[in-house]
Amino acid sequence: MSTTAIQAVRGMNDVLPEAGERWDFLETTVTECLRQYGYRSIRMPLVERTDLFVRSIGEVTDIVEKEMYSFIDRLNGDSLTLRPEGTASCVRATIEHNLLYGGPQRLFYLGPMFRHERPQKGRYRQFYQVGVEALGFVGPDIDVELIVMCARMWRALGIAGLDLELNTLGSTQARGRYRAHLVSYLERNRDDLDEDSRRRVHSNPLRVLDSKNPEMQALIAQAPRLLDDLDEDSLKHFEDLQALLRDAQVSYRINPRLVRGLDYYNRTVFEWVTSKLGAQAAVCAGGRYDGLIEQLGGKPAPACGFAMGVERLIALVELERVAVPVNPPNVYLVQRGVEAATWAWQVCERLRDSGLSVIMHCGAGSFKSQMKRADASGARFAVIIGDDEARAGKVSLKPLRDLKAQALVDVNEVAALVRAGASKK
Ligand code: HAM
Predict the structure, then answer these.
(1) Ligand 1 mutation target, pool 269, 312, 314, most atoms within 8 A of CB
(2) DSSP β-bridge partners for residue 384
(3) What separation in angstroms does the CA of 406 have from each of 124, 396, 400?
(4) Which atom of ligand 1 is nearest to the CA of 262?
(5) Euclidean distance between CA atoms 32 and 23, whole angstroms
(6) Highest-scoring range by mean pLDDT, 330-344, 370-384, 410-424
(7) Ligand 1 atom 29: the closest Cα is on which residue?
(8) Which of 125, 188, 244, 404 has the fewest CB neighbours in a 10 Å radius?
(9) End-to-end distance of the chain based on CA atoms, in angstroms?
(10) Ligand 1 in contact with 210 (CB < 6 A)?
(11) Is ligand 1 within 6 A of the CB of residue 58?
(12) What is the number of the ligand 1 atom nearest to the C-alpha of 312?
């Protein structure tokens, strides 16, 4: 058997404890914010039928064409896929469990997504999203709620300098009209298109506008604008949305080229972008998908949502040097002697009963080495138990972060003394 160390799969990362503190901070901050707006959590499986993503994200998209981790279930031959995003699964679950029967739903989920992209800074093959879906609302008030909530999250996370880009894709009919105009423009300029775009002229022309190829940018800038083909209802939706955003004092920039890489969107689309992370500028993105619920077999209902890329936000938290709360234990328990061992167990549990976090020294070790561990743990106090303390039914409380004296105290006193930061009254 080989004993060579096995490494993680490319593009799939470990989050080590120190970074874990930033992740905890982000997750608690964001979920607290979601709770403030009345969003409730939903958890979907990581694996779904491949068809779900083909039908929702769209056959001619990068995700479905080349990025999905799909495999055949050996037992029954079904084609399954590791979820590349959460919206399709969330809509599937909503339909399957009749969630909209009880009225509109505000939902969120948090977890890993999988895309077989070329890994680079800010782009991974397993990455985490916090996804938020508001199902059954026509908007634009809910569109604005989602955006305002994002802005609150950025403030709560201490992240400054994110820009909001906004566009509307209009109704299906308006998009159809626009598509025809765009296709004829692209046909006229076929010789200047790159290979990818040429392939997309008829299958997914709007995605040509999303090309990152620098040589395509001039041609894209000259292309007809979707805004000019917009239907009246979508235009009104977009104008109302902007008025509400101005009321809420959220600044934005209209980007007529913002089309998004998934096919289910209509009307409002938006992205929060940063200039601090190089090529991976979008930290959060979403929009309306009013047709998706019906398209996946549900009763027609409008919907809107977004997802944020956790790794990218964590990178910003690091860049901005946001002070992230670290939670060292309140107490490290040091023990010596035979009688001490039994008493130490009881003390630890009693201290935890009173709400303290306690690390009990496990494994043998000299007093000196145990005290070293206590110091390294970051705890403010060591509780020391030797046979003398055990016999007296007491503990010694030793401050580790200042020069105050060690004191022999009753177990019942420890929690109050630790909270007061003192070893005696
Ligand atoms: P998306 O734009 O594909 O939208 O992804 C949302 C965010 O996930 C991106 O803005 C980015 O921050 C992050 N992200 C995407 N791919 C990667 C990757 N390979 N590595 C690291 N981060 C990544 C969606 O997924 C939609 N489901 C959003 C949505 C929800 N729309 C409506 N509801």
Answers:
(1) 312
(2) 334, 396
(3) 50, 7, 9
(4) 3
(5) 14
(6) 370-384
(7) 306
(8) 188
(9) 62
(10) no
(11) no
(12) 12
Does residue 129's CB lie within 6 angstroms of at least one atom of ligand 1? yes
206: closest CA among 94, 60, 315?
A: 60
Any idea what DSSP says for residue 120? B
Q: Give dist(CA 221, CA 354) in Å, integer.
A: 65
pTM above 0.90, yes or no: yes
Token duo for residue 59:
């056959």
Calpha distance 365→217 (Å, rounded): 67
**Which atom number of ligand 1 is nearest to the Cα of residue 124?**
20
Q: Closest by alpha carbon to 166, among 302, 342, 287, 44? A: 287
Q: Are 334 and 345 in contact (CB under 8 A)?
A: no
Grade residue 227 by pLDDT with cuts at 50, 70 and 90: confident
| 101 CA → ligand 1 middle, Å | 28
Q: Which CATH architecture has domain 331-418?
A: 3-Layer(aba) Sandwich (3.40)
Q: Using the structure block, give the residue that is written with the tokens 């705890």.
A: 379
Q: Is 302 in the pocket of ligand 1 (CB under 6 A)?
A: no
Report whether residue 204 contacts ligand 1, using a CB cutoff of 6 Å: no
pLDDT for the residue numbered 288: 97
The closest-lying atom of ligand 1 relative to the alpha carbon of residue 125 is 19
Q: Which amino acid is at 178?
A: Y
Q: Where are the domains of the chain?
A: 17-171+231-319, 331-418
Q: How distant is the alpha carbon of residue 322 from its chain centre?
A: 17
The half-sphere exposure of 50 on its side-chain side, counting CA atoms within 13 A, is 17
Could you tell me which of 94, 85, 78 has the C-alpha nearest to residue 56? 85
- Yes or no: domain 17-171+231-319 corresponds to CATH 3.30.930.10: yes
Residue 24 has pLDDT above 80, yes or no: yes
Interacting residues of 360 by C-beta distance below 8 A, sequence separation 6+: 333, 335, 344, 345, 348
Instruction: Give the CB-side neighbour count of residue 162, counting CA atoms within 13 A.
Output: 29
Distance CA 176, CA 197 (A): 18
Q: What kind and span of H or E run contains 336?
A: none
Q: Strand pairing partners for 126?
A: 114
